[in-house]
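Tutorial handout. Part one gives the primary structure; part two gives the three-dimensional structure as tokens.
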Amino acid sequence: MQYQFILLFLFFGLTSIFAQEKKQIILNDTLKSEEIDPLRPAKAAFYSAIFPGLGQIYNKKYWKLPLVYGAIGTSTYFYIDSQKNYNIYRNEYKNRLAGSASGSDYLANLSESQLISAQKQFQRNRDLSALFIVGFYVLNIIDANIDAALSQFNVSEKLAFKPAIIKNDINLKNDFGFAMNYSF
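Part two.
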């Protein structure tokens, strides 16, 4: 009778083990695959070349627009102002060579060498302002290109560059160094 209870227990015990359903645990993939557009930097640079600041708008860096327009606008203002002053002194010098009287008391008190010196100074300032306009325009294009390229750069927490203290087994001293870690 004892053997019958043991056999009965084993029979019901084994069937209950096989009768249980196994729950499947499905882990969600935590990695998000972001689509990388290889033409994004070229598009941003093209947009900035067409119209200054448009590449920054394409990159959604709206705070850079005042910097772009402030730099190019200020340089343009100084270019126009220097050109205007250059024309004033040049016209005064031409009128003196033609023998006509000056319309301004200030300009009438200047000598011909001072007029020539002022012309050269304003011409130099005008040329520098033109150089700054071109420089800021090119800088605008380069900024849009680099910003678009770096916006697709992986900066997750899994990739880390951290300082580390490493125990040196030879002389039993602690060494300081840097370690590049990538965790999965």
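Part three, for discussion. The mean pLDDT is 83. The beta strands are 159-167, 174-182.
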